[in-house]
Amino acid sequence: MSYEVPFIRPVFPFPTDLSVDFEEIIESNWFTNFGPREIRFREKIADYLGQNLHAVTFNNATSGIIAALSAVFGPGDGTKGIIIPSFTFAAGALSIQLLGYKPLFIDIDADTLQPSVESAIHIAREGKCEVAGVLLCNTFGIGNPDISDWENLCEQKSWPMVVDSAAGFGSRHSDGTLLGATGRCEVFSFHATKPFAIGEGGAVVTSDPILAESMRSFSNFGFADGLGSNQVGINGKLQELNAALGLRQFPKFEKALSSRRLALNRYREEISADFFSFPRGIEQSSVCFASVITVDHKTRERARERLIEEGVEARTYYSPVVDRQPIFAPYQDLSAPLPVTEDIAGRVLSLPIHENMKSEDLDRVIKTLNGL
Ligand SMILES: *Cc1c(COP(=O)(O)O)cnc(C)c1O
């Protein structure tokens, strides 16, 4: 179904610019396998996000999560678990399972929608499954305001932490620093649905050069110089054409972010606060999603129906929540209690947001919600 106001509308570089890139790629006869554009793109990512960081690119963020978990935790034997919120996208839990670990689902905090430290402590206290570490999510790309509590907990428990910031490239923590420098490494997505869109693509960023090299090898069949496959691996490499797209997105990115933040501000200022609230910290994010929490489930359903009638596409990220998806049924007994996750899943609504969103489209969404 197509909507007059679609949920997303990625803005890509000019086709004429890309055709120049493509001609050069053909000319150089170097299409993938860490070509000159991939190298420049990875360097730009690392420079953009902070100092002394190393970026490893991937064909998508999910490959990056798998590489990060494999490099940090090693292949699992099916007995240990990795803590992850249920209120997120399925890719993280799938990766945990694929590597031979059990996803140990935890709850979120109601005002931030971010993974709850108390819920992780509950998992450790219950002791139903040995905890190997944490795959934290910066849910909706919003920097977790309790990140230092998470770092303290993980240090105290000797849990390595990998951070899924897939939707958060360009997002900032409340102290103004960009996401990308917490945990052992952080994963970003450049999927078409994300603010920095190259179609399919991702990167993992770390301050540890040895970890970076291990993940790069993982993305390339586990190859080591002259030895062939020297560790587990996949083919997760980013193509030159996608790297070219990424290099062309960088100069436009700050403008893209401010355009998204302006649209979010209109929602925040003009949608009735009696019925809709925004998660804390969203204004510092790259606004991948304009997620609102409705006052109750009925209001969410009514809002969604009315928006559809008005030709507006809204979604319900993240519902169904991950622990309720059939493949994860075997792990439900190991989960922490998830009351906030269940409540929020029934009340969350993601409004359309993209770069250069027309003022009249924003008006239409705001008017529909205020007229329920
Ligand atoms: C988008 C997203 C992913 C998956 O990213 P891909 O690049 O599509 O593999 C994983 N985790 C979260 C939280 C996401 O938002």
- What's the average pLDDT? 97
* Gyration radius, rounded: 21 Å
Secondary structure: number of strands: 12
Number of helices: 12
- Associated small molecules: pyridoxal-5'-phosphate
| Series of secondary-structure elements, N-terminal to C-terminal | HHEHEHEHEHEEEHEEHHEEHHEH
Task: Describe the protein in words.
The chain is an alpha/beta fold and 372 residues long. It is 38% helix and 14% strand. The chain has helices spanning 15-28, 36-49, 61-73, 91-98, 117-126, 147-157, 209-218, 240-249, 253-270, 297-309, 339-345, 359-370; strands spanning 54-58, 81-85, 102-106, 131-137, 161-164, 185-189, 202-206, 223-224, 228-229, 276-277, 290-294, 348-351. The strands form three sheets. Strands 1-7-6-5-4-2-3 form a seven-stranded mixed beta sheet, sandwiched between helices. A three-stranded antiparallel beta sheet has the order 10-11-12. The chain starts with 14 loop residues before the first helix and ends with a helix. The mean pLDDT is 97. Bound molecules: pyridoxal-5'-phosphate. Residues 60-62, 88-89, 91-92, 137, 164, 166-167, 189, 191, 202 line the site of pyridoxal-5'-phosphate.
